[in-house]
Automatic annotation (TrEMBL):
PANTHER family: LOW MOLECULAR WEIGHT PHOSPHOTYROSINE PROTEIN PHOSPHATASE, LOW MOLECULAR WEIGHT PROTEIN TYROSINE PHOSPHATASE. Residues 5-153 form the Phosphotyrosine protein phosphatase I domain. It comes from the Bacteria. Pfam families: LMWPc (PF01451). The keyword Membrane does not apply. Belongs to the low molecular weight phosphotyrosine protein phosphatase family. It is an enzyme of class 3 (hydrolase). GO terms for molecular function: protein tyrosine phosphatase activity. Keywords: Hydrolase, Protein phosphatase. CDD domains: LMWPTP. This is protein-tyrosine-phosphatase. Its EC number is 3.1.3.48. InterPro entries: LMW_PTPase, Ptyr_pPase, Ptyr_pPase_sf, Tyr_phospatase_low_mol_wt.
Length: 159
């Protein structure tokens, strides 16, 4: 039985998928009364957007679902994250390869594909950055599904 569980969501730039996952998961954890037993964060493998807010389209899509991610700021993945988080969940295979390379060198928590926790037939959360608004809605649907599965696993871990 764990007292507290930490979850890190990882994508490429930390402005679309991973902050959306952080926001959705935080929202679900709050609804289920588990937020005080979780540490939730997000980051990107790239450095282009460090310190920036999430993409306006991601923020708007989340807001339409009652989730506020506007206060989040992008940061870059660090090797230490593998020692500080119980779950390191990546959005796609490219992110997985990048984080796994660091994991092979340093150990710690083994990174996993986030959608492994959901019921989708997809293995990866598609990057909506170059698409339209529908892409952001689709990403939120996938994230919500996987977040529900993850929360159920964590609930058992905390029991």
């Amino acid at each position: 039985m764990a007292d507290r569980v930490s979850v890190l969501f990882v994508c490429l730039g930390n402005i679309c998928r991973s902050p959306s996952a952080e926001g959705v998961f935080r929202h679900l954890a709050q609804e289920h009364g588990l937020l005080d037993r979780l540490h939730i964060d997000s980051c990107g493998t790239g450095s282009w957007h460090i310190g920036k807010s999430p993409d306006e389209r991601a923020t708007a899509a989340a807001a339409r679902r009652g989730i506020d991610i506007s206060d989040l700021r992008a940061r870059q993945f660090r090797a230490e994250d593998l020692d500080q988080f119980d779950y390191v969940l990546v959005m796609d295979r490219s992110n997985l390869a990048d984080v796994r390379e660091v994991w092979h060198q340093n150990g710690g928590t083994e990174p996993r594909l986030f959608l492994d926790f959901g019921g989708s037939r997809l293995a990866e959360v598609p990057d909506p950055y170059y698409g339209g608004e529908d892409g952001f809605e689709h990403v939120l649907d996938l994230i919500h599904d996987a977040s529900s599965g993850l929360l159920e696993e964590i609930r058992r871990r905390l029991a």
